[in-house]
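Lay summary

Proteins are chains of building blocks that fold into shapes. Our project writes down both the chain and a compact code for its shape. Here are two examples, one after the other.
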Amino acid sequence: MPYLVVATVLIGLVAGANLIFTYGVIRRLREHTARLDATGAGRPEFDLILAAGAEPGPLAPVRTTTGEALGPDDLAGGALVGFFSPDCAPCREQAPRFAERAAAGGRERVLAVAVGTPEATGELVALLEPVARVVIEVEEGPLHRAFAVQGYPAMCVLDADGRVKAAGSAVDRLPELPAV
């Protein structure tokens, strides 16, 4: 019987210590979240790319994976633009949805940017190339700078004037391409 009492008391002490440690972890997580919010690290998704109403910066001429030259005038008249990284789990989820939307918009009105080396972006390129003009680019490349990309996936729809109509990280939240 004394062993049972000792075991019950020990279990009670361990459970009490566990409760105190759990409270401390929760308090620390709240402090950490408040610090992140104060520094802006918990940015809203529209900060991943230019916000609605903004105009992309100057586009330097680039080459697509099929060898097409892509210049500043090639996105005029409305376009769907997406930036994807092969290392990004949300990108792997959004890329097929982007491809579906791109198929409806017409290849000439869709630009997909795969971030990384040609070897690393192979799957993305194979998925997107039939429905979009695809450019492989390193982070901070000319297209990244023009669209102020800060994370992935980042997508936007450009209106007929070349301004961002809508932006986000999920293609389902973007409007359809404007009619030509």
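And here is the second example, written the same way.
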Amino acid sequence: NITRAEFVTVIVKAFQLGEHEGKTFADTQTHWAKGAIATVAAAGIVAGYSDNSFGPDDFITREQMAAIVVRAANLAATDKSVNFPDSADISDWAGTALATATAKGLINGYEDGTVKPKVNTTRAQAVAVILRALQAKK
């Protein structure tokens, strides 16, 4: 699995965002990824769980990954809805991002037809999604 801090660090490097001063969350003030987290927060790519909490060492879920990568790649939102057997499990805040990520081919469903929005993302899945997003951005 990949943590939220690791994922946004890869996002900063992959999308060549460069470090910028930005929001420092209470739980990131002394974290090794403080700079990357501040950069993506300054760019409007992440907002955190709250004003004071980012959860840098939490594993990132598929719906969180979708929201971050769609914003990082600046992909136009789709008006399509997500149609998976477990679509009801998608958080309200992640619906448009997950629909966009699936419509653009960044995220695919599993063999059983589900998307598993709240399942932790593996490093391999994260890299595949980021590479697809970089291609979609071109």
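What can we say about the second shape? The chain has two domains: 1-60, 61-138.
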